[in-house]
Amino acid sequence: xxxxxxxxxxxxxxxxxxxxxxxxxxxxxxxxxxxxxxxxxxxxxxxxxxxxxxxxxxxxxxxxxxxxxxxxxxxxxxxxxxxxxxxxxxxxxxxxxxxxxxxxxxxxxxxxxxxxxxxxxxxxxxxxxxxxxxxxxxxxxxxxxxxxxxxxxxxxxxxxxxxxxxxxxxxxxxxxxxxxxxxxxxxxxxxxxxxxxxxxxxxxxxxxxxxxxxxxxxxxxxxxxxxxxxxxxxxxxxxxxxxxxxxxxxxxxxxxxxxxxxxxxxxxxxxxxxxxxxxxxxxxxxxxxxxxxxx
Length: 295
Prior knowledge:
This protein is α/β, with parallel strands linked by helices. It has helices spanning 18-26, 46-56, 70-80, 99-109, 143-147, 162-168, 179-188, 214-229, 233-253, 257-272, 281-290, and strands spanning 5-11, 33-40, 61-65, 85-88, 94-95, 115-123, 129-133, 158-161, 194-204, 292-294. The chain folds into two domains: 5-210, Spore Coat Polysaccharide Biosynthesis Protein SpsA, Chain A (Alpha-Beta Complex), CATH 3.90.550; 212-294. Strands 1, 2, 3, 4, 5, 6, 7, 8, 9 and 10 form a ten-stranded mixed beta sheet that branches. The chain is globular, with a radius of gyration of 19 Å.
């Protein structure tokens, strides 16, 4: 019996992008799937648009709730879905047509794999590809060691067996950003993450993206670090070093030179005394720099 795949799309005020996301779900070459759109209290034309999409795609499933953030929207989708496997897709992103087919073929050939993820294209607001992002975790690191440095991939690239999600639990609804990073850390504690080379989706860049609010993102990242690594001194120091380095880059970009120097000093002190490296920091930073390749 074919495995059913559930594609869960949370949306909030993304009416202008949502048709692309939904159409990419129904354009999959793998036929055994369901698509669930969860409207997270949108105040734009999302409700009317969903009625139009239901006419175009009668198999589309929809749900609506009060605004609570992407975690709560994905959690509602998880409660409503029936799939043996789950793929997440944000409303402003797009799946490539063979995403599900490639990943499910791999999982059927490797029955021990419960979590497979691919790479993605970085595209403009009009879906023009500008770069490819290699999402592969460093092979010489335990996934938890890699994930303490950063979030390596977006929700649109994995395909995950439902039994893993049932074991990991729901997304943390107190996190309005960095919630996917938190979730991958939790997954890494219970399952091996397998990378399948090649782009499987398009990540759209546009001015309204939440991660562009650096202060908000940094605060959420600090909460994730505290949540998972508070009692793990080595990984906490690694995570803090990465945050310091990001602070320095952000402040320098925005001409906040004093703040940038202070962040670099914090990082340098950690680096000087080997508090976070374990001999691996140069390899990790090299990998991070080589992930994004212009087309």
